[in-house]
Structure to design on (1152 residues):
């Protein structure tokens, strides 16, 4: 399998790449070479991001954090895994995000009998032209909502994950590029249910961030009951930005500057997770790469053109928590991946000596 | 800034006029001060590090001193070599002697001028260091104070208006420069700048001046109280110095009689206790000649260096010096033997001054056998015709200094016209000085500016015709010498007052006890008459007692005002106790000499200064660190000078630490700033402080994490940074208790933790080394184990 082979090679490349050189490698594999969008100016960027967030918040009450994180992941060219119990608005979040952008949206409801070709597409013999024609699957959209991804079979899951990683689909030796921007928002039900195939760790690593919605607070819930009674709030959402705008915003995010100090800090976080006695599996180099990309998007959303340690800290939990695995003892002692990451961040020195830094500068 | 310091120091040094005579010393002082200040200014302009600037200033000081004073001994005229050092020590010794032995105003000899230039140069260094790198321009006034203290304690008139005004003007200029140029001044004061500050300072200065001027008028008895005008604070007990002349005026002016000496004597004539003589009149200032080479040890038998007449009166005097401290022993003239002294003592055959080799006169109790020729007017008249034989008398008693003022010569000439007999001349001079023209006054010389001694003082005295014993005695001695009579000035005590006690000496009538104290300090001339030896006279009106031979009975037309009626000669032939006369008492040679008060006082003062410096050092250091951080630099490729944001950030963190908000290493800048802002009760938080924290944080973030292409962050100017920090400081102070504020001011925790880290660093290294060594040994074992197994 050619694509399989390519994928392994690329993976090794990523592993070999030091995260310290992250900025050179921001053009991740599968990124469209050639038609890169010009970076969006800071003011427009700010306005556009505000509009998107306002649109989401208009529909989902009291979940500003989750909305912001979803936008962050979109701008960082990552994929989002929303994990929570049913009925807290996972799909609603994904849908609103998709709806507020004027772009192609598709939704895949994963079921055990869903086939890989349903996701990627299939070549069909066209009688009239006497040729095989490629019918694009559901994944060919700017924003793909994968509902209950853990219900699909492992084969189908991996087909989707491959698209996510490669930003392209290879069918019968032909590669089809995905549209840009491309983002998969997958939802997953954490409660053990019959007939589900939970994502293995390796595949969860493909998602840039995992968030859980959590229950809304009382006021938000009351308001939700009030406003959502008659008409679906989704209907009110109209696209506020175009796909090209989002692409330009992504380019702007990619141009955010990452200083040596922040790179060092990011690497230090990775090392700390790997050295932690409470963790069986620490953060992978790819996860650090994604952490930094998410931090860049956060910085951009905050109106800065450089990354602060605060940006890294802000996204560390959603980016890292679903990739690390606790030691059994730690899990028994009541630790969660989130708490371990919080502890690491609380003890890790941010910068050793700013005076020495100044002398160096 | 450097100019202001130089101006201030030179201004303060103006007040030294009066401590040093004349103005000749001023030009080397100006050169030295100017060169040091200039060198430091140039180095600073070249942006040398602070330590280098101070070192450079010091080097400049050494060079200019070598060039000015030790050119011959120095390499290439200004680089100090080994010879320079030797010569410098010689000069310093001379300066030390001057300080010890002379009274103000002293002649500006090379040694003392070198010393003063050195001190003033060091003061410039100190002030510059305080004012610029440590950013404590106000504190640097201490240097000026140190300069002003010298004349204030030495000169009877005080520091003097000109010097004080000049020093103040320089200081104000310095403060002004600090306000205009130093970025840190505002932070230091913690208050706003502008009109208010100026007004405040003017009001404060005016009030201080008014109090200083009015208070002395309001306090009664400034003329006679504990410290009358002209007397100086002398907290270290009476006396003392090598030169009794130095303290004579001050002793006479002390309201309390310090240095009480009691003595009992068998002599019938009033006894003058004499400690030392002055016999060289050349110098600008007179001091006893030590004559160390000709001194002889042991006081059991004292033989004068000239022949005494055969007919001698022997007297026994028992003296208890009590607290009187002087290297010279007060004894009645002419001592023949002194017994009962502690320590080793030596005497000079020429002057018969008795000097302690390892002791002072403090707490000595001794018996003096003195002899005196029976001197009568007739004998003197007879002796007065003969001129001293050659070689009989050392030249130093006859030498007339070349620089005797005209008025002295003229007066002496007028007085002795037509008189051939030396005795007649002497009487004429004494009569003139005791005449109604002259008044005895302790204050007049102080006010007239001729307090002290020396030839120029003498001229003033003869014009003003008012002074005290030193003036009278020296006038007579010098005039006698001018007219050809060998003379010298004796210094000691005038006859004292009976205490009412009687002292019994074995087997004889009890002797009347007298006492003298500082107020009886006296100087009188001694004139040499062939065959009779040194004969004392008494030209000072109302003091002492005129010896009967010198009383004016002999000379006709005398208008002398001899106040002492006690001139009945009772030549009391006293048999000497043979034991004391023959066998000199063994001299216990214990080595523990009682130190005089001055070095102790110096040590106490130095200790106090050191303690104060230690106490203030955290604050000073903290201020220094702050000033260093807030210095503007011009990084390459940037428009204007700016404070590096990282250093401003360090300062913010230290500020927070000082006020109890300790930054954690795991905090991001933003997090720290938020914590700092959150630590202030919302009631006390103010917008300016919050904004300042935010701005400093933003600057630092941009600098540290921003794109280097922008040159990091532009960084704020020193003024702006200082303003921001002072806003934060004001906010922090408002929220904290006075204890925390006190600690932040005097024992800043940021500094103490820094010290603690420095002190503990070796231990940490040791600990780390031990861990590493342990790991290494462990690895070695692991490596060795398979080999062993292999065996």
């Amino acid at each position: 399998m050619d694509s399989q082979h390519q994928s392994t090679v690329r993976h090794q490349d990523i592993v070999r790449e030091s995260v310290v050189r992250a900025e050179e490698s921001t053009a991740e594999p599968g990124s469209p070479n050639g038609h890169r969008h010009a970076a969006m100016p800071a003011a427009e960027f700010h306005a556009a991001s505000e509009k998107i967030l306002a649109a989401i918040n208009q529909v989902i009450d009291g979940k500003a954090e989750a909305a912001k994180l979803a936008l962050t992941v979109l701008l960082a060219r990552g994929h989002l895994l929303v994990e929570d119990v049913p009925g807290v608005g996972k799909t609603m979040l994904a849908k609103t995000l998709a709806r507020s952008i004027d772009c192609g949206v598709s939704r895949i409801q994963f079921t055990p009998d869903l086939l890989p070709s349903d996701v990627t597409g299939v070549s069909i013999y066209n009688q009239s032209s006497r040729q095989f024609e490629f019918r694009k699957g559901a994944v060919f959209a700017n924003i793909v909502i994968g509902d209950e991804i853990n219900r699909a079979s492992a084969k189908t899951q991996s087909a989707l994950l491959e698209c996510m990683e490669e930003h392209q689909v290879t069918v019968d030796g032909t590669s089809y590029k995905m549209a840009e921007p491309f983002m998969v928002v997958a939802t997953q039900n954490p409660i053990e249910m019959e007939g589900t195939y939970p994502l293995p760790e390796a595949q969860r690593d493909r998602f840039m961030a995992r968030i859980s919605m959590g229950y809304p607070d009382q006021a938000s819930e009351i308001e939700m009951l009030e406003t959502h009674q008659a008409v679906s709030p989704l209907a009110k959402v109209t696209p506020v930005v175009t796909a090209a705008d989002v692409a330009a915003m992504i380019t702007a995010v990619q141009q955010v500057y990452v200083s040596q100090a922040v790179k060092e800090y990011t690497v230090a976080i990775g090392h700390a997770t790997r050295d932690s006695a409470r963790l069986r599996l620490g953060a992978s180099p790819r996860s650090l790469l994604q952490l930094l990309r998410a931090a860049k998007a956060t910085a951009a959303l905050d109106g800065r053109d450089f990354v602060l340690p605060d940006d890294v800290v802000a996204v560390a939990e959603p980016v890292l928590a679903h990739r690390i695995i606790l030691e059994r003892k730690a899990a028994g002692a009541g630790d969660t991946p989130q708490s371990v990451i919080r502890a690491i961040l609380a003890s890790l020195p941010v910068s050793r000596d700013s005076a020495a830094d100044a002398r160096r500068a | 800034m450097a100019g202001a310091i130089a101006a201030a120091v030179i201004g303060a040094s103006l007040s030294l006029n009066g401590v040093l005579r004349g103005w000749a010393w001023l030009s080397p002082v100006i050169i030295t001060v100017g060169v040091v200040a200039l060198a430091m200014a140039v180095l600073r302009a070249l942006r040398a590090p602070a330590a280098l600037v101070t070192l450079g200033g010091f080097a400049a000081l050494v060079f200019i001193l070598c060039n000015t004073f030790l050119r011959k001994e120095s390499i290439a005229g200004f680089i100090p070599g080994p010879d320079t050092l030797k010569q410098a020590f010689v000069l310093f010794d001379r300066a030390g002697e001057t300080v010890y032995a002379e009274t103000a105003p002293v002649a500006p000899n090379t040694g003392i001028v070198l010393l003063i230039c050195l001190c003033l140069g060091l003061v410039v260094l100190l002030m510059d260091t305080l004012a610029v790198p440590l950013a404590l321009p106000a504190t640097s006034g201490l240097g000026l104070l140190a300069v002003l203290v010298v004349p204030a304690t030495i000169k009877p008139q005080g520091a003097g208006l000109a010097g004080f005004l000049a020093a103040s003007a320089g200081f104000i200029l310095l403060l002004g420069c600090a306000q205009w140029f130093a970025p840190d001044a505002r932070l230091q004061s913690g208050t706003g700048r502008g009109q208010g500050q100026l007004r405040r300072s003017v009001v404060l200065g005016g009030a201080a001046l008014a109090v200083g001027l009015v208070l002395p008028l309001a306090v009664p008895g400034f003329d006679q109280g504990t410290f009358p005008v002209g007397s100086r604070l002398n907290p270290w007990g009476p006396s003392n110095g090598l030169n009794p002349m130095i303290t004579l005026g001050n002793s006479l002016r002390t309201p309390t009689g310090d240095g009480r000496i009691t003595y009992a004597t068998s002599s019938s004539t009033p006894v003058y206790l004499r400690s030392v003589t002055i016999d060289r009149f050349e110098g600008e200032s007179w001091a006893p000649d030590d004559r160390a080479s000709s001194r002889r040890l042991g006081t059991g038998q004292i033989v004068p260096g000239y022949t005494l007449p055969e007919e001698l009166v022997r007297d026994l005097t028992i003296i208890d010096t009590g607290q009187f401290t002087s290297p010279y022993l007060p004894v009645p003239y002419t001592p023949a033997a002194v017994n009962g002294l502690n320590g080793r003592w030596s005497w000079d055959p020429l002057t018969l001054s008795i000097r302690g080799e390892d002791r002072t006169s403090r707490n000595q109790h001794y018996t003096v056998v003195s002899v005196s020729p029976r001197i009568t007017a007739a004998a003197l008249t007879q002796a007065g015709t003969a001129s001293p034989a050659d070689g009989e008398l050392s030249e130093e008693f006859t030498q007339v200094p070349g620089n005797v003022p005209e008025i002295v010569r003229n007066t002496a000439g007028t007085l002795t016209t037509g008189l051939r007999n030396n005795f007649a001349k002497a009487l004429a001079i004494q009569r003139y000085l005791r005449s109604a023209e002259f008044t005895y006054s302790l204050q007049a010389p102080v006010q007239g500016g001729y307090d002290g001694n020396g030839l120029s003082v003498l001229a003033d005295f003869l014009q003003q015709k008012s002074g005290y014993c030193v003036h009278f005695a020296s006038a007579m001695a010098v005039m006698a010498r001018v007219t050809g009579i060998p003379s010298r000035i004796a210094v000691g005590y005038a006859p004292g007052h009976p205490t009412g006690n009687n002292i019994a000496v074995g087997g004889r009538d009890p002797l009347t006890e007298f006492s003298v104290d500082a107020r009886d300090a006296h100087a009188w001339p001694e004139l040499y008459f062939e065959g009779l030896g040194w004969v004392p006279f008494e030209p000072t009106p109302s003091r002492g007692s005129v010896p009967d031979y010198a009383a004016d009975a002999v000379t006709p037309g005398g208008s002398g005002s001899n106040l002492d009626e006690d001139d009945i000669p009772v030549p009391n032939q006293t048999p000497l106790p043979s034991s004391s006369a023959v066998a000199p008492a063994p001299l216990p040679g214990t080595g523990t000499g009682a130190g005089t008060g001055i070095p102790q006082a110096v040590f106490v003062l130095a200790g106090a200064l050191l303690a104060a410096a230690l106490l203030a050092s955290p604050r000073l250091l903290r201020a220094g660190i702050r000033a260093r951080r807030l210095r503007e630099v011009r990084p390459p490729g940037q428009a204007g000078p700016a404070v590096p944001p990282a250093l401003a950030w360090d300062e913010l963190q230290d500020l927070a630490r000082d006020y109890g908000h300790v930054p954690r290493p795991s905090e991001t800048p933003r997090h720290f700033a938020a914590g700092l802002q959150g630590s202030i009760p919302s009631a006390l938080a103010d917008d300016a402080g919050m904004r300042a924290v935010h701005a400093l944080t933003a600057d630092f973030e941009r600098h540290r994490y921003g794109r280097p292409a922008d040159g990091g962050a532009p960084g704020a100017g020193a003024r702006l940074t200082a303003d921001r920090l002072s806003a934060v400081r004001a906010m922090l102070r408002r929220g904290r208790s006075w204890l925390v504020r006190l600690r932040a001011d005097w024992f800043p925790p940021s500094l103490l933790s820094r010290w603690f880290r420095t002190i503990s660093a070796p231990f940490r290294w040791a600990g780390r080394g031990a861990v590493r060594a342990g790991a290494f040994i462990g690895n070695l074992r692991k490596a060795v184990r398979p080999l062993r197994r292999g065996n």
Observations:
- Residues 42-59 of chain A form the longest helix (18 residues).
- Confidence is low (pLDDT under 50) at residues 1-35, 354-361 of chain A.
- Chain A has two domains: 38-219+237-243, 256-352.
- The interface with chain B takes residues 257, 259, 261-262, 305-310, 313, 345-352, 354-355, 357-358, 361 of chain A (CB under 8 Å).
